[in-house]
Amino acid sequence: MFGEAKKIHLIKEILKINDDIVLQEVEDVIINYNVRIVKDRNFTMFAGSLTDTEANELEDIIAAGCEKINADDWK
Predict the structure, then answer these.
(1) pTM for the full model?
(2) Which distant-in-sequence residues (6+ apart) come within 8 Å of 58 by Cβ?
(3) Is 7 exposed, middle or buried (0-12, 13-18, 19+ CB in 10 A)?
(4) DSSP-derived secondary structure for 6-63
(5) Which residues of 11-21 are buried (b: 16+ CB within 10 A; e: fewer)?
(6) pLDDT for 20-50, tens place per residue?
């Protein structure tokens, strides 16, 4: 079984489950799969998502908040 037929088969089998623990395990597998997909993405998918104005504003915010050194913080 491949593709849509396999999905339909799995859905039918899931509908037969009457055990909350087993259903929770199935849900956990789906959640973990979705989390893994998000983690596998790289930053190139975000390239070009900011306008030049937004990118400049973000750079200014980072410069203002991250490039200051407070000598007393090291004590």
Answers:
(1) 0.44
(2) 50
(3) exposed
(4) HHHHHHHHHHH---HHHHHHHHHHHHHHHHHHHHH--GGGGTT-S-HHHHHHHHHHHH
(5) eeeeeeeeeee
(6) 999 999 999 998 888 776 665 666 777 788 8
